[in-house]
Amino acid sequence: MQMKPLVLAFVGDCVYELYIRNYLISEKYRDVNELHRKSVFFVKAKAQAYILRALEPELNDEERGIVRRGRNAHPHTVPKNAEVADYRQATAYEALIGYLYLSGSARLASILEKSVAIGRMRNE
């Protein structure tokens, strides 16, 4: 599948955000403000960059290629509250998630589960 990395990241952003929201609800968080605060912790660029750095040694060559393409993509904007390096890493992470989702890869579930575990360790 040959898609532009920013398109993969667009899809990956949605998939990851939905996964995190489902995870938080399954953890019995019910207050909307707390749900929002916890979800932002996982989905902000700095967190995604941290998660990707932890996951990279486990990625196969194809996944590393997707990450490289995502990291090298040139987004039109950068959020005002994110470092450029973190934002590029986060885009690479989202491109990986989008790629795994669109290709129907069984690795998606494993990568998402590991992502949550890494994010939780970062919070402790």
SSE topology:
Elements: H1 5-26, H2 32-43, H3 45-55, H4 61-72, H5 84-102, H6 107-123
Helix pairs in contact: 1-2, 1-5, 3-5, 3-6, 4-5
Account of the 3D structure:
This protein has 124 residues and is mainly α. It has a single domain, classed as Ribonuclease iii, N-terminal Endonuclease Domain, Chain A, CATH 1.10.1520. It is 75% helix and 0% strand. It is built from six helices and no strands. The chain is globular and about 40 Å long. The termini are far apart. The model has no long low-confidence stretch (mean pLDDT 93). Its EC number is 3.1.26.-. Its cofactor is Mg(2+). It is found in: Cytoplasm.
Spatial shape: globular
The secondary-structure element order is: HHHHHH
CATH architecture annotation name: Orthogonal Bundle
Task: Report the β-strand fraction as a percent range.
Answer: under 5%
The percent of residues in helical segments reads over 70%
Using only C-alpha atoms, the radius of gyration works out to 14 Å
In total, the number of domains comes to: 1
SSE class = mainly alpha
CATH topology: Ribonuclease iii, N-terminal Endonuclease Domain, Chain A
CATH class: Mainly Alpha
Question: Whole-number average pLDDT?
Answer: 93
Fourth-level CATH superfamily: Ribonuclease III domain
Q: Give the low-pLDDT segments.
A: none
Counted beta strands? 0
- How many angstroms separate the termini? 38 Å
**Describe the biggest sheet?**
none
Q: Figure out the total of helices.
A: 6
